[in-house]
Amino acid sequence: MVSDTRLTVVDTLALVGVEPRPVRVECAVSGGLPGLRLVGLPDAAVREAGERVRAALQRSGFRWPSQRIVVNLAPADLPKGGAGFDLPLALGILAASGQLDPDRFDGLVVHGEVGLDGSLRGVPGALAVAVGARRLGVRRLLVPRPGAEVTATVDGLDVWAADDLAEAAALVGGTRPARPLPSGATPPAPDPSVHGDLGDVRGQPVARRAVEVAAAGGHHLLLVGPPGCGKSMLARRLVTVLPDLDHAAQLEVASVHGIAGGPRAVPSPRPPVRAPQSGITAAALVGGAGGAARPGELSLAHHGVLVLDELLETPRAVLDALRQPLEDGRVTIDRARVRVTLPARVQLVATTNPCPCGLLGHPRRTCTCRPDRLATYRARLSGPLMDRIDVHVLLRPVSRARLTGPPDGEASDRVASRVRAARERACARQGPVLNRDVARAAVDATTTAAARRLLAEGLEALGASARAHDRCLRVARTVADLADADVVTGDHVAEALALRLTGLPA
Predict the structure, then answer these.
(1) Beta strand residue intervals within 302-346, DSSP E
(2) For residues 297 and 283, is the Cβ–Cβ distance under 8 A?
(3) Residue 281 lies in a domain
(4) Which runs of consecutive H residues, i.e. helices, occur in 218-246?
(5) Which of 121, 400, 421, 473 has the fewest CB atoms in 10 Å of its CB?
(6) Among 431, 462, 494, which residue terminates a domain?
(7) Would you state the pLDDT for residue 279?
(8) Do 295 and 284 touch, CB atoms closer than 8 A?
(9) Alpha-carbon torsion angle 125, 126, 128, 129, nearest 10
(10) Assign residue 147 a region: left if phi > 0, alpha if psi is -120 to 50, beta otherwise?
(11) pLDDT for 190
């Protein structure tokens, strides 16, 4: 017996976190009672696609098959979510019912949402889908026109855009000439007034130097001081001295923000900055808020800066959630059927008062905090997390004369030029790896024996851990790069120790 079943396969992609996974939409039309059955772990949005697609096909002048339709989303054990399966489902049904040539889908990935009137709508994560398609070696991508210009920023991929279902079918069927979108999208122009300028900060020469060192090596930074001494100003201006992102990093950042529905869904050369409130939850910080594997603030700051103002006002459980991501550069979210890994290679810049009242160590005012309250306040910052912060700086109040006098610090563009030169030196030596993440053996090879002894003696006096030793050594490597030095000497180690030993006052 010859089967009368007609089968068509349309390729698309599912997003697991920010990672695109290939999915085959297998559509079979055969004899039997009319109806549509979707299998392959679809979520509610995918299961509802059948009703949307049926109405869209009929409104667009196509025929809905009066036969049994079975659609399998393979691999069957991968959960499928979102409205991006609408368009491949609609085109697959058209091909399986003889209204489109099934051979026209070779080398094509289809992704997008279909409205009841046949119009096409973009979905979150279109850029991540385009990046995944290129990684799989796909030649062509068909997406809705809204937002399609963002996907065209991916090199080596022909992007077709359609306004409605009829146009999409015509492009696939060849009855309308396919003209790929021009490559590239115009990134939003950076607004220099958003983060200010490092020259706005009066006084605090040590803290400004710490910002420069942290920026040059990508080191995590903790600024401690009483209210009004400039901690928040410095933290938010660190990004103004960072170099631009390369194209690959721009795509990664825009992909994460596109999935989360953020405003940076278009690739931009400037590193992202995230500054959540101190009352943020662990799920909102790490990801997975609302039960979904959505990027949190850590991932939204990927390749950029995460500013945590008033660090010790944040619950300890939330702060401890930072420990592993700061070490590994990624976060892992476990759900019932899937484990999602999200990128989180961030530079942490944190500020805090030295005590609840903020006056501990103030030269002219007296702290009123009881010892037990001070102990509770500081207990929120665990030793392991403190170990992972490379640079600790204690700020003092700035005199009124300095506050009202002329600017006494360098502007961001001058500092940025030194930071850029230091990073270029490091890249020439060790490849595209920040000093914060470079292997210890690579730093040891460029450090004098006297400098290593000085570092060991300085940290041994404090009872510091092996992790603190390695991080301080990497800071010394950055100091040497800023000084245009090939070898780390005792002077570089001494500055690194000075930037490490000043922290929460006793």
Answers:
(1) 305-308, 330-334, 339-343
(2) no
(3) yes
(4) 231-237
(5) 400
(6) 431
(7) 83
(8) no
(9) 120
(10) left
(11) 58
pLDDT at 184: 59
| Residue 289: predicted pLDDT | 67
Tokens, residue 360: 């501990």
Q: What is the DSSP letter of 295?
A: B
The span from the CA of 302 to the CA of 248, in Å, is 12
Same domain, 147 and 215: no
Helix axes 49-59, 86-96, angle to 10 degrees: 60
**Any idea what the Cα angle at residue 24 is, between residues 18 and 28, rounded to 5°?**
145
- Give the long-range contacts of residues 74-77, CB within 8 A, separation 24 or more: 74/23, 74/24, 74/26, 74/40, 75/23, 75/40, 76/39, 76/40, 76/41, 77/41
And the tokens for 34? 């009319």
Confidence at residue 16, expressed as pLDDT on a 0 to 100 scale: 85
CATH number at residue 43: 3.30.230.10
3-state helix, strand, coil in the chain (%, to 5): 40, 20, 40
Domain match, 261 and 144 both: no
Question: Which residues of the chain are under the pLDDT cut of 70?
Answer: 1-4, 184-193, 262-264, 289-292, 335-338, 501-506
- Are the C-beta atoms of residues 127 and 259 closer than 8 Å to each other? no
**Closest C-alpha among 342, 298, 303 to residue 321:** 298
- Burial pattern 82-116, b for ≥16 Cβ within 10 A else e, equals bbbbbbbbbbbbbbbbeebebebbeebbbbbbbbe
Q: What is the pLDDT of residue 337?
A: 65
Long-range contacts formed by 356-365: CB under 8 A, 24+ apart? 358/226, 358/227, 359/226, 360/226, 360/505, 361/226, 361/394, 361/396, 361/505, 362/226, 362/397, 363/396, 363/397, 364/397, 365/226
Task: Please say whether the beta carbons of 12 and 85 come within 8 A.
Answer: yes
If asked whether residues 220 and 347 sit together in one domain, one would say: yes
What distances in angstroms separate CA 388 from CA 26, 210, 473, one per listed residue? 49, 16, 13
What pLDDT, on a 0 to 100 scale, did the predictor assign at position 1?
A: 36
Q: How many CB atoms within 10 Å of residue 287? A: 28
Separation between Cα atoms, residue 432 and residue 424, nearest integer Å:
9
Q: How many angstroms separate the CA atoms of 287 and 386, rounded? A: 22
Q: Which two tokens stand for residue 359?
A: 């006056």
Q: Are residues 143 and 204 in the same domain?
A: no
Helix H, strand E, coil C: the string for 370-436 is CHHHHHHHHCCCCHHHHHCCCEEEECCCCCHHHHHCCCCCCCHHHHHHHHHHHHHHHHHHHCCCCHH
